[in-house]
Design a protein that fits this description.
The protein is mainly beta. The chain folds into two domains: about 1-115 and about 125-135, Jelly Rolls (Sandwich); about 145-250, Jelly Rolls, CATH 2.60.120.10. About 5% of the residues lie in helices and about 50% in strands. The protein is built from three helices and 23 strands. The chain has helices at about 5-10, 30-35, 250-255; strands spanning about 1-5, 15, 25-30, 40-45, 50-55, 60-65, 70, 80, 85-90, 95-100, 105-110, 130-135, 145, 150-160, 170-180, 185-190, 195-200, 205-210, 210-215, 220-225, 230-235, 240-245, 255-260. The strands form three sheets. Strands 1, 13, 14, 15, 16, 17, 18, 19, 20, 21, 22 and 23 form a twelve-stranded antiparallel β-sheet that branches. The longest helix has 6 residues, at about 5-10.
């Protein structure tokens, strides 16, 4: 288990500032937490900024977790990128995001490479097929997950990017909501995937067999393969999270086992 945030990344030398004032924070990669299936980054865009986003050498998916921006990319994908909008990124691409009066924060789950490699100049011209899909997270079905036998209690999940949605090959991106007070995902593990869980809104606790670890909005927990973990909403409002698997493009591909007391 590794709990982090943009602030933690900045304090520990895992951030970089661009000439336009944007800042990229690395939350998960091999150097930081021994990740083997991919990376997670956050980019903060100040107000009134035009910033070129490089997608890197692997596939990735990004979601606007605060503020809003305007996407400038060749084809029909361009337009406003408000709170909760998602882009599925192709490898070796670039696109431009511009902000107006408000700043924006972009959370990206990168599948595949575990260290950042900037593609060659020839491969990263702005436009082309840098953005595979663009949509709001609310466009995805909100599936109720109250299945006590499987460890799901009073929560729901949306599958945003996976094998069936966008045909990703090495990562999964989703959004989950936990009911206030009793919404939880009991202890479980994934033998074939690392999980990354970002608290978008609300407060709760990350669960382990040895105890509970408080988490608030803006924090992310990285969970290694085969590590028992869970989550519970401890607040009085619904908790929204962004979850994902690195190294697997579906829940089935990552594997799933519920914890029993005889472990």
């Amino acid at each position: 288990m590794f709990i982090t945030s943009a602030e933690f990344a900045a304090d520990n030398g895992h951030s970089e500032r661009f000439d336009d004032g944007a800042v990229r924070y690395w939350l998960v990669n091999h150097e930081i937490c021994q990740a083997t299936g991919g990376m997670v980054s956050v980019v903060d865009l100040p107000s009134r900024t035009s910033h070129v986003v490089e997608t890197g050498t692997g596939e990735s998916g990004s979601i606007v977790v605060s503020g809003g921006a305007v996407l400038d990319e060749a084809g029909s994908a361009d337009g406003p990128m408000g709170h909760g909008h998602v882009v599925q990124n192709a490898a070796h691409g670039r696109y431009r995001l511009g902000t107006n009066e408000t700043a924006a924060r972009l959370l990206t789950y990168h599948g595949g490479p575990t260290s950042w490699q900037t593609p060659t100049t020839e491969a990263t011209s702005v436009g082309g097929r840098s953005v595979v899909r663009r949509f709001s997270y609310t466009d995805a079905d909100d599936n109720p997950f109250h299945m006590p036998d499987l460890g799901f209690l009073n929560m729901s999940a949306r599958w945003l990017i996976d094998e069936a949605n966008g045909a990703s090959s090495g990562y999964t991106l989703g959004q989950s909501t936990f009911a206030p007070g009793d919404g939880s995902h009991e202890l479980h593990r994934h033998p074939d995937a690392e999980e990354v869980f970002f608290v978008w809104e609300g407060e709760g606790v990350h669960l382990t067999p040895d105890g509970e670890f408080p988490m608030t909005a803006g924090q992310l927990v990285f969970v290694s393969r085969n590590e028992w973990h869970g989550f519970r909403n401890t607040g009085s409002t619904p908790l929204k999270a962004i979850f994902g698997f690195l190294g697997a493009n579906s829940l089935d591909a990552g594997g799933y086992e519920v914890y029993h007391s005889n472990h």
